[in-house]
Amino acid sequence: MTGRAALQRFVSVRMIVYAAAEAFDVVALNVQAACRGLRETRARYAACLLAEQFTQQSRPQIGHLVGCRDRGGVRRAIIKASQLWETDEDFRVRFEGAKNAVLSVAKTELAERLRDVDTTKIAEAVCERPNRNVSSWELIALASRVLSLEELAGDAFQLLADVDRLADLPRDAATDELRGEIRSRIAAITETLAELGYRDAQPQQGVPNV
Q1: Cα 89 to Cα 54: distance, rounded to the nearest angstrom
Q2: Contact in structure between 185 and 162 (CB atoms under 8 Å)
Q3: In contact, 108 and 60? CB cutoff 8 Å
Q4: Among 18-27, 68-77, 190-199, which is the least confidently predicted range?
Q5: Which of 13, 30, 91, 131 lies deepest, with the highest CB count within 10 Å?
Q6: Is residue 33 part of a domain?
Q7: 121 domain residue, yes or no
């Protein structure tokens, strides 16, 4: 589907954060802040659940855009939002208000202007024009990606250290356990790469099978 019909079906996390902030009477950027009041926290819970329901973003990607700093933050927010929707009438009314706003905006041209930012394109643009203005949304997205890459680098260094240890050890029960840990770490790194947008990342040919 193309053209306006496709535009009508578009929903971004950014759009959801704005709608949740409006519904809960808070500032959108405060929803993403590390230090939040009760209303901002409830707005973030709502935003996470709505993003899970209406976007194609992974939970880590949702976390980057709403300000969750740890990998389990979005999962906990979704669980909390689901509980509040069942037990708290005020939360349910505000959540449904945000949901209706999202579905209404998704049918307009405003949806195109509220697309989630592409951090790679932003970084390229800043390198080409260092004096370019960068919005708060772009800064948050860039900072979140840097933190994810830092975590990934730490995992990669640990993996290299384990592979180095493994090369010097005879094959026995202990090394088989280490091989299992290495395989788990490789899977975790591959998953993180996929979450960062490297979805076609595959082990290179010739890499030894641990």
Answers
A1: 22
A2: yes
A3: no
A4: 190-199
A5: 13
A6: yes
A7: no
Q: Note the maximum CA span of the chain.
A: 64
The pLDDT of residue 161 is above 90: no
Cα(12)–Cα(35) distance, integer angstroms: 24
- With a CB cutoff of 8 Å and minimum separation 6, the contacts of 155 are 185, 188, 189, 192
Do residues 123 and 142 lie in contact, with contact meaning Cβ atoms separated by under 8 Å? yes
In a domain, 209, yes or no: no
Q: Are residues 61 and 147 in the same domain?
A: no
pLDDT in tens, 10-65: 788 888 998 999 999 998 888 877 767 889 999 999 999 999 999 888 887 788 77
Which residue pairs, CB below 8 angstroms and at least 24 apart, start in 142-150?
144/63, 144/64, 144/65, 144/67, 145/64, 145/119, 145/196, 147/69, 148/60, 148/64, 148/192, 148/195, 148/196, 149/196
> Would you report the helix, strand and coil content of the chain in percent, each value rounded to 5?
70, 0, 30
Q: Please give the Cα distance from 159 to 63 (Å, whole number).
A: 25
Looking at the fold, whether 20 and 94 belong to one and the same domain comes out as: yes
Do 47 and 101 share a domain, yes or no?
A: yes
Give the C-alpha separation, 203 to 185, whole Å: 13
